[in-house]
Amino acid sequence: MERTLAIIKPEVVERGDVGKIITRIEEENFKIAAMKMLRLTKAQAEGFYHVHRGKFFFDELTTYMSSGPVVVMVLEGENAIRRWRQIMGATDPAKAEEGSIRKEFGTDIQRNAVHGSDSQESAAFEIGYFFAGMEFHA
Fold first, then answer.
1. What residues pair up with 22 in beta bridges, in sequence order?
2. Is the pTM here over 0.90, yes or no?
3. Handedness of CA 120, 126, 128, 130 (dihedral sign)
4. Residue-wise pLDDT tens digits, 31-88
5. Which of 4, 30, 96, 121 is least surrounded by Cβ atoms within 10 Å, i.e. has the fewest?
6. What would the CATH number be for the domain defined by 2-131?
7. Whether 120 contacts 81, CB under 8 Å
8. Is 78 strand, coil or helix?
9. Catalytic residue among 50, 52, 115, 137
10. Nearest Cα to 9, choosing from 96, 56, 68?
């Protein structure tokens, strides 16, 4: 079993579509091993997205991700990282495949509904950023 981090972003929470995305996650046979809703501070968003520091979109991204509540989850399953990224769709909802979460729920390249880890290394960092080991459910 592999784990990946998933984040439901502020615009989805604001619209009240969290349940639709969680339903989709369950329909795709992921196990939700941990989940919580929180509101990131700007500093916490900057720490999470540290790999993008110095890029032109860093300030806008971290401001956006700290603009409202998010739902963070640890998803488990076979090839969880690859599968979750496929289900999310392309970063830009306009280029995302029909049926993908970003195509259905995203509005633009930044407000693209969800986040997912892109590798085992990033998944380990991202999961550890939000969850302690005792927060996982067996």
1. none
2. yes
3. negative
4. 999 999 999 999 999 999 999 999 999 999 999 999 999 999 999 999 999 999 999 9
5. 121
6. 3.30.70.141
7. yes
8. coil
9. 115
10. 68
